[in-house]
Amino acid sequence: MECIEARKYISLYIDGEIDDEKRRELLEHMKTCSECASSYDSMKSMDSSIKDIFCDKKLPEGFEEKIMNNLPERKESTVFHKLRNKAKPAMLIPVLTITAVLIILWMSSPSILNFFNKKVPDRGTGGTMADLAAMIRLNDVDYLASDDVVADERIIGGQIGKITKSIADEHSNTKITNGSATILPVGTTVYSINDMNDAIAVKYNGKWEVYKKRGTDKLRFLFNDDYANAEKIIISYNNDGKESKREIADRNTITAVVKYLKSVRPEDQAIQYSNQNTCSFYFYIKDGSGIGKIVPSIMIVYNDPKLGGYISYDHYYKVTPEVLKLFVPGTANTGYDVSMGGAFQIYDAYLSPKFLIRRFVKDENGPKAQVKVIKKDEKIWSDGKLINDTLSGNYKLMVLMRGTTIQNKAAEKIKSDYKKIPGAVSISISKGETDDTTVIYIGFDKIPNYKFDEFGESIMILMNGSN
Amino acid sequence: MIDEKTVIKKAAEGDRDAFGELVAVYAKRLYGFLYAILQDEHDCLDIVQETFFKAYKNIFTFDTNRSFVTWLFTIAKNNAFNYLKSRNRNDLGYESLDNIESKAEGPEEKILKKEETKRLADAISRLPEKYKAIIYLKYISNLSYREIGKRLNIKESLVESRIYTARQKIASFLKEGV
Q1: Model pLDDT, residue A404
Q2: How far apart are the two ends of chain B, measured CA to CA in Å?
Q3: CA dist., res. B156 & res. B147, Å (int)
Q4: Residue from the list B14, B66, B163 with its beta carbon closest to the beta carbon of A11
Q5: Model pTM score
Q6: Which of A188, A197, A292, B22 has the smallest count of CB within 10 Å of its CB?
Q7: Nearest to A171 by CA among B126, B168, B135
Q8: Domains in chain B, ordered, with CATH?
Q9: A190 or A350, greater pLDDT
């Protein structure tokens, strides 16, 4: 057993999750390796210290009852019953998306944002333990996995090396040396690519992957004349793990798509759909000798083709429903639930041309904000009062912001400005579960005139940029 | 407890008994955790009470797709650190518990041990959520890798590597603090 492996098994050994064979191997190894043995000692001592922290401590007699008796009272009012009996939950459906957008629009206007005390999320300091992206180190150069496509195998050059060390995800405090790769298995052959110095290719799971020299992987690509002259556009769809392909070879369509892509500008704003659909496409462009070039694979993210979506490369570009239809024929999916995902990512896009969503960020501790529609028949208590009763309007929207405090003056300003949100009839602002959590409720009488098929019960919205 | 999610949903709808179940499960554990940080029984009991009070008031804001124990202990930790801040006039910020003098008296070694415990609690609270959730589920809920995987809907092998990484991170936080 090697030290790298041993370190991993020490953790399993301490937790009693190791199998007999590995345990024997580990114990053997530690007999001869003093470093691993001392690593075991310190991990074991940390383990028992953590156990000390999280051990139960006997509460004084009757303390749990005291906790319960101390909780705020909740009294259900008759008004609530009336509302509940009338409620038709399904009617609520469209309100969420639109109002969430409006609120974000409203909250993110600079004048309002200035009032928020923005906090930079504590990201910790991972040191060498940052999660590594897919990479290869070869001849002292780091290559990162790219989205580029090998459209034509004939572009692959000769063998230039082999992966000699594979570093599993999250065990990344291992030293990276020439021949190391984070994801690729040992023995993977690395190939050059003809006429490209900054990129290499490997075959992984039966598919060609392009790795680009660190620093060159995010270069903006431009839709130049090559694209307009592309032989075809190849679109791939992934449905539950099954890949299917479609080609557009019609010259007029290709020209129209390129013209459109040339005309759109990258957006600063983004949204990600959690019930999202994606497909990707690339242009098959021949070089002088008739061989297909290495080209970027461009992702399209959408929820409902009728509403448009966005394409993502290193930036986000809005895609109109008309263009999207070229790539995504067929009907809309059901479900509309907007959710930001992925730590540290900034999504930039338009939800619709009309409503702008500004830059929101999720940090490692989860989403910074949450928006939830309070249905008519849903009991929501705050400070011992039913929100349904304390706020006017048939529908309520909760906006929960973590790591955000609103100073009194700002709260006053928001309270006087809330009518700028179309349809809003009432507002309340209060503190959430921690002192730096703010909960805003907004009441609406009518559902705004904006239609989506359906959506989930909550929207996560990422708040307040990290800088 | 049958299913925590269901209990939480009931509690969010105002079911006191459901909330009582959560108190029964977590109060002792919370008390132990706070005691590790504050070392004062009286203060800790106050904060246990305050934590459940805030949790009850805000339980409807809790997203049931996330870990309840992480949420609850975050409230407790914030309360504890706020308390420490107010106790020590000079604002220390929650990241440096090192300088906070322990109220408890005793032999030097005992105090040193307590300082270590505080630093460790601080280090754990600084972990990114995905690691913190696993540490909490392992140590607070005493779940096996398999059960943690089920709870978080991730593969057992990922639980394995996250626990490993979490420990590495804690160790490096502790090192930084020295």
Answers
A1: 57
A2: 42
A3: 9
A4: B163
A5: 0.45
A6: A197
A7: B168
A8: 1-110 (1.10.1740.10), 127-178 (1.10.10.10)
A9: A190
